[in-house]
Every structure is written in C-alpha cells, then in structure tokens.
Amino acid sequence: MPGLHWLKSSFSDAGGNNCIEVAALEGEDVAIRESESPERIVTTDRATLRALVLGLKSSKVGFG
After folding, report:
1. Do residues 55 and 15 touch, judged by C-beta distance below 8 A?
2. Comparing C-alpha atoms, which of 8, 4, 26 is closest to residue 17?
C-alpha cells in the first residue's frame, strides 16, 4: 500500500521499531502495521480498531 501516511505513537522509542503504525484509508477503513515488519499490513474499520484500543486500555492483563 504505497503512498499511505503512517502515524505512530509518541510513546515509541527513538529507534521507532517497536510500535504499531496506523494509516487512514478511504471511507471508514484504516491500515495497521507493526513498524518492525512494515510489509505486513492488516486493514479494518475505525469502529473495530477503536473497540480494540478501548478493550486493551481497560484490560488488567499486562504486556511484556
């Protein structure tokens, strides 16, 4: 998906290879990729991505 404007979290480290990046597509869809493997791109709609983020934020499960 060339030509997309990828956004990453300001919490990403200086190296920039340990975060999730998001790009807007046409309509309500978004593209998501991990900066460490930018060739792997997943697409979904904004409502689903929002539900995922809110679920992760409210989760008591730790990561890492």
Report:
1. no
2. 8
HSE-CB at 30 with a 13 A cutoff on CA atoms is: 14
pLDDT digits (tens, 9 = 90+) for 4-59: 999 987 777 666 567 889 999 999 999 999 988 889 999 999 999 999 889 888 87
The Cα–Cα gap between 32 and 23 comes to 7
52: phi then psi, degrees, rounded to nearest 5: -65, -50
The amino acid that residue 24 corresponds to is A
Over the range 39-61, which residues count as b (16 or more CB within 10 Å of their CB) and which as e?
Answer: eeeeebeeeebeeeeeeeeeeee
